[in-house]
TrEMBL record:
Pfam families xrefs: SusD-like (PF12741)
Record lineage: Bacteria, Pseudomonadati, Bacteroidota, Bacteroidia, Bacteroidales
Entry keyword set: Lipoprotein, Signal
Coiled coil residues, start to end: none
Leader sequence segment: 1-25
Protein's UniProt name: SusD/RagB family nutrient-binding outer membrane lipoprotein
Listed InterPro entries: SusD-like, TPR-like_helical_dom_sf
Domain of life: Bacteria
Organism: Bacteroides salyersiae
Gene3D superfamilies: 1.25.40.390
Amino acid sequence: MNMKKNNFFIACIVMSLLGMQSCMDFDVPGDELTGNTEEGSDEVYHGAADILDYHKEISQEGLDLALTNLAKEAPLGYILSATYSMRGGKEATRPGAHAYQYQFNMSVDNYAGYMVVPHTDFPFAMITLNSTYAFEQSVNAGPNGNYTLTKNYLSPILNHPDIDSIPEMKAVALLLFDYASQEEVDLYGSFPYTQFKANQQEHPYTYDSCEDIYKGIVDNLDSINACLKNYPNRPEWYKTKVNKLLKDVDEITDTKDFETWRKMGNSLKLRMAMHVVKRDKDLAKKWAEEAVMEGVANSLEDEVSFSTDKSGTNHPLAEISRSWGDSRLNASFETILFSLK
């Protein structure tokens, strides 16, 4: 997660992921991250989560009925809750220091050398970090906890039959699901991506391979790009209503429009191409060229972030590093940054 002074990035679209996660004074490490409680309808839907029928025609009455049904059973507000949970938010609140530390700062940030923990003992959590590369096992599950929260918000929306009446909002939910899934597979490993996306909520699960997850995500990103690219062709009455729906759940773009989300999807595809270049350079080249051709983020207007200025909140790292004294910039990373001046 690329960090700036006043912005908390959710989509690092020009750099590799730099996530951040100790006081850790919750009752039992990980309890706040279970994310197994869902609100809304008790009925569990299983639909075509990754099908975006953006050519579907719908009447104003049909759209109103779909929104009424979604509000009762799979509220679109879950999209914003999922956005929060992707960066350490709990119970539909903005990202906080505890979950953020557990999800990112004590694992990938420390291991990758972006940050460093300046001490070894975490008495409230009963954790000891003997060295940068000696992971405490209880920390390893951190990324999975908030991913569980995220997919529990998004899967009911993606599988609800009425979301197909608003394919652009479904595309936004699917993009967030896939963004979180790409981080999950990188930080945590293989998981039941296909079944989670299909809203399966009970065992047995079949774990997808990392390669299959990556390819499944890219297939979705291509569909998302096509769907949002077609949005200007929709009727004006439809765009008026759907634009408002997006603004109600979008706290991470300045433009509040689908074009920024479309570029976010293509930028994620470009990042994934960079991730696989050592494994399959031909596939990486194909993905990268396709992403750039369709349009990636290339200006400040395309930036996707939680703005601390606008929300009136602090970045979780401020509390983790200043108040708790649990995180510092890695000296090696600092040297690299100074060399670029």
